[in-house]
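Service request form, structural biology core

Requester: graduate student, group of Dr. S.
Request type: structure prediction, single chain
Budget code: on file
Notes: please return the result as structure tokens.

Sequence provided:
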Amino acid sequence: MMYLDTDIIVYAIENHPDYGVRCKEILQKIQDKKLKACSSFLVLIELINVLVKLNKLLESPELDIRKNIEAVTSLPIIWLDISVPVLERASEYEYVFPELTMFT
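Core staff response, request fulfilled:
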């Protein structure tokens, strides 16, 4: 079983030039149940924050945050500590990002 961290999801969503294809393959293997994965609800919170940041940097089209989160949560992943009320509450907040060189 592998631990699915935020970077794999983000690289797949943003079509990262070096890692995007491989990350999409990993997510597809999870979807097809060829690879078992677990993750934490903290990954979802981090993913929301990264997508918000990316949307601020993109001129258009914006990434559909709800659609991407729904796609990730529909994967057959073992969520180690997911709590729907906690996730809903966390998604109400906007994280203020420090300047990050990887996004500039």
